Amino acid sequence: MIDRDRILKIFNQTGAMLTGHFLLTSGRHSDRYFQCALVLQHPRHCGALCRELALRFAGQGITAVVGPAMGGIVMSYEVARSLKARSLFAERENGKMALRRGFAIAPGEPVLVVEDVITTGGSVKEVIDLVGEAGGQVAGVAVLVDRSGGEARLGVRTESLLEIPAVSYSPDQCPLCLRGIPFVKPGSRKP
């Protein structure tokens, strides 16, 4: 098992825990951002973190792991490798999450949903719905960093390696904006 201090050390060593003024995927603003791609670019760290998440779902009979593009693609592959399952990813098509590229989920198939970071859980909820629409059974959600402070209620068992509630603000109430500090939008899609 990897303990919380070791996980935080990995995030700090790779520069994945950023401070400043950020526009989150949810449209909210924050003074902290987790750029998990900076951790996941290191196969040694990616493998270790994803194995830790996979262990939490071992023995559940999971045959497919799916994550939303972009953050969930590498994680899906590594978690699936540990669980000896298939790796899929969902991507946006006409503004909605979809399984493309020939990916399919069999009716009743046990599926694990993975994501790098959740704040509101919006993308994960879309993937959960997608799996359900395809007839699959969501066995749970595995996430590297849960920033929601317990607010992202996904309706299924959720396991995270780090729970670090980050303060976030609506754009019209953001103190960083009020001080004139420009924001950075490091995410992969527009709010």
Describe it for me?
This protein is α/β, with parallel strands linked by helices. It has one domain (4-178): Rossmann fold, CATH 3.40.50. It is built from six helices and nine strands, in the order H-E-E-H-H-E-H-E-E-E-H-E-E-E-H. It has helices spanning 4-13, 37-40, 43-55, 71-83, 122-133, 175-178, and strands at 17-23, 29-34, 64-68, 86-93, 96-99, 110-118, 137-146, 158-163, 168-169. The strands form two sheets. The chain has a six-stranded mixed sheet with strand order 5-4-3-6-7-8, with helices on both faces. A three-stranded antiparallel sheet has the order 1-2-9. Strand 4 (86-93) and strand 5 form a beta hairpin. The longest helix is centred in the first third of the chain and has 13 residues, at 43-55. The radius of gyration is 16 Å and the shape is globular. The model has no long low-confidence stretch (mean pLDDT 91).
Quick summary of this structure?
By secondary structure, the chain is of the alpha/beta class. It has helices at residues 4-13, 37-40, 43-55, 71-83, 122-133, 175-178; strands at 17-23, 29-34, 64-68, 86-93, 96-99, 110-118, 137-146, 158-163, 168-169.
Output the keywords.
single chain, about 190 residues, alpha/beta, Rossmann fold, 6-stranded mixed beta sheet, about 30% strand
